[in-house]
Amino acid sequence: MAKLLRVNMTDLSVRFEDVPEKYALLGGRGLTSSIIYDEVPPLCHPLGPDNKLVIAPGIVSGTKAPTSGRTSFGGKSPLTGGIKESNAGGLSSQKIARLGIKAIIVEGQPKEKGRFYVLRVDKDGARLLPADHLKGKGMYEVCDLLWKEHGEGVAIIGIGPAGEMLMSAAGICVNDQENTAGRYAGRGGLGAVMGSKGLKAIVIDDRGGPGVEIKNPELFEQGIKKLTQASLTHDVTKKGGALNTYGTNVLVNIMNEAGGYPTRNFSSGRFELASQISGETKAEIIHKRNGEGMTGHPCHPGCIIQCSDRWANPDGTFKVSVMEYESVWALGANCGIGDLDKIADLIWLCNDIGVDTIEMGDTIAVAMEAGLLPFGDADGAIRLLNEEVRHGTPLGRILGNGCVFTGRAFGVTRVPAVKGQGMPAYEPRAVKGIGVTYATSTMGADHTAGYTIAPEILGVGGKADPFAVQKADLSRAFQATTAFIDSTGYCLFDAFCVLDIPEGFEGMVESCAGVLGVNWTTQDAIRLGYEIIRKERLFNEAAGFTRAHDRLPDFMTKEPLPPHNTVFDVPPEELDAVYDFSKWPKEVVGEVAG
Amino acid sequence: MIEVHLYGDLRRYAGKTDPREEAIVWVPYRPGLTVADVLREIGIDPERQVSNIFINGHYDYHARSRLVQDGDRLGVFPRNMALLYC
Ligand code: SF4
């Protein structure tokens, strides 16, 4: 029987508990959000002792199901003040699951400030070890040291100096098979929550673990067969397909063509240097340098899409992983920087210091807007990260708390954020549905929460006109489906094939049902998704959020965005309809109580 | 003139292979010209080689049969870069 591992940082104790009945069928985001909803007072301070950090592998993580090694991290966000789920690839999910652990709950706070610990989890149990020697260290060194101490191959979950300093832009890092610090549950400042618990890192050694129990192997096998088939045949996810060949950065040219590629702090939808930093250019340079770089890299064993990459320096030596769409945009186009090697330097620094690349890109762009440095000044941006944020200087602490904090400090009004969280790389004035997701998601501005780009721009999972404003139903349906996928352990990029190929989604659901020993229909799965976003919404309401928080920043409704010269004109009623429970599809969710 | 931006392996029709350079072909405008005609003039098979087409930054999956206007900008992606669907 799988267990919950409860780690109390106040008295430094660990305890294994039986999984309560109500959590038996949950995993990933469904589980982290339910535990936060049940156990964390919505009005608590995110960095105080009452907040919790919950870490959960997905339902099928740890089995041979393809592309299913995502770990969910949940807590109350210091950046948004609401509930947060942020997930990452890397080694951790499969190993936690194979140790028979359904979730790790980190709670309390050490009495002694400034002390840090490492939690080691293995087949014999869990214990907290002093981590004074890791204090202040960047994630690359932390990964190296922990593999030396605990053996090669162990999974590492950790925070850099930003998390230790409780910065709201701090993320949680997970290592990959090469022990590179590059996979991040970046969004929402959960790194600061981990730091506030005095937890520098978690080491997971799954050798000798019991593995994941599969209650109905036949159904499970049937499910993964269908899903694998869909994944290997869909043009987006197959071998040699767009994601595998170019990585997520394939989107640069596409979003730029669509006029929805936010440039220089969201002042234009087209970047004149886009071709310098596109997925095509990235792949071409990696192959030309012909050294330690590679495309088509899996972020964890068992991923068959392999959208990740390893970027090499001009001399062919390895530099950084991963040059993905969001990071390249945030620290590139959004800052007016069109040089992939400089962007690689910036991503490397974010990964080492332990800050979210999206939030830092938004923040540096706001600092540029404020005149702290000119747009395009890559060396200036490098200096800000390496000399200010890393060392927690007063300026570094302003920047490390994200774009809203920085905008306020410097009197900038063009700050692209919702609920305190900086926007990702899709312009809501050019792609209205993603704006509806940004505005209403329980997570703050988050593209993964309801990726309407798929039907709006990519024509995947149905088709929708990006400039039309009736997007409540579309965004809501995507938010619910996403909440389900985030619970399974499957990578969200599987959505591309499962949205288009019905058997793919069936397979995804059947593989989960096979592990859990239930008979789920796809309808049941989507209902679960709705249940998750409902809980998250109720948590946020209790934390003080109202409809007024479900709005995009003022400037986006007034400043026309070139090249289309459109504003964000989705009416407020349309935004409010997304979380109006009386408008939720009754055939899926029945009557929903508010 | 119609300004055609080519991506992926379609860049070669603009005589370009380096993805860092913009690959643009200019096609003289004639009344009655469709997007498919424009592509054929460049030497691209609009059915077999193309996945997604943007007209003036608007994605349009019926793009091939649309009439072009003088001054239009087309963005054309190859099949093997299909993130987009037709
Ligand atoms: S598709 Fe990409 S992000 Fe998803 S699991 Fe695979 S490598 Fe990781």
What does this structure look like?
- The complex is a heterodimer of chains A (594) and B (86).
- Chain A is an alpha+beta fold and 594 residues long.
- Chain A folds into three domains: 3-204, Aldehyde ferredoxin oxidoreductase, N-terminal domain (Aldehyde Ferredoxin Oxidoreductase,  A, domain 1), CATH 3.60.9.10; 249-427, Aldehyde Ferredoxin Oxidoreductase Protein, subunit A, domain 2, CATH 1.10.569.10; 429-500 and 521-594, Aldehyde Ferredoxin Oxidoreductase Protein, subunit A, domain 3, CATH 1.10.599.10.
- Chain B has one domain (2-81): Beta-grasp domain (Ubiquitin-like (UB roll)), CATH 3.10.20.30.
- Chain B contains one helix and five strands.
- The longest helix of chain B is centred in the middle third of the chain and has 8 residues, at 35-42.
- Chain B is globular and about 35 Å long.
- Residues 67, 89, 298-299, 303, 305-308, 491, 493 of chain A line the site of iron/sulfur cluster.
